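User: Hey, quick favor. My workstation is busy. Could you predict this chain's structure for me?
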Amino acid sequence: MEYQRLIGTKNNPLTLKTPPLSSEFTMHVDEKDGKEILVCTVKTTVLHYDIRCLRDLHTMLMEHGDWMVLGSKDEKDEAIPGTVEYWGRSADNPVGGWYGLKKGFRGRFGMYIPPLMEHLGLAEVEHNKRDNRMKAIG
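Assistant: No problem, here it is.
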């Protein structure tokens, strides 16, 4: 999949909203250390995620076969088992740990990756004030 065309570049990023539709953020594809990464900008905060998370999360959700709670947490907070956030930092996922790449800003996987998955047509995401869930499409 050609992610830059679908997600955007630094000069032309994709604008998305958090699952509760309460805040905007941008997402684009860039390169770091020779690898493609997702760059998520929330006001002045910049987070980096391994771009592989898109394929891996979709695969996991397909195998899960049902809705999964997002459970977004900051890096320093414990994620709740069985949530997307927990999976995004679990030693049991395909990368063996964090998909977030910037120390101190590796969390919030369950907040910023699901809207991108929804935009790409890979998942359905709920848009309630809290406790949102997602499930795979495809």
